[in-house]
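Researcher: Quick test of sequence recovery. Tokens follow.
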């Protein structure tokens, strides 16, 4: 059972994969976004408990999200 929902946003797929592997030990579900626009859309829809955002994504960066 997952207690938390964590949104991970990064434009580098290997970074998202590495973070997901680290979080696998937690009772958490991980949502993925590959740019800031997708992250903002998912955050509004899914209301995650934690956002992990890359600050240097093309388009909308983590600070703008």
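Model:
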């Amino acid at each position: 059972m997952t207690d938390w929902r964590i949104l991970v946003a990064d434009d580098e797929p290997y970074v998202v994969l590495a973070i997901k592997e680290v979080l696998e030990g937690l009772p958490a579900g991980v949502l993925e976004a590959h740019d800031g626009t997708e992250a903002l859309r998912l955050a509004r829809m899914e209301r995650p408990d934690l956002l992990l955002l890359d600050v240097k994504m093309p388009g909308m960066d983590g600070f703008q999200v």
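The helical segments are 13-23, 36-46.
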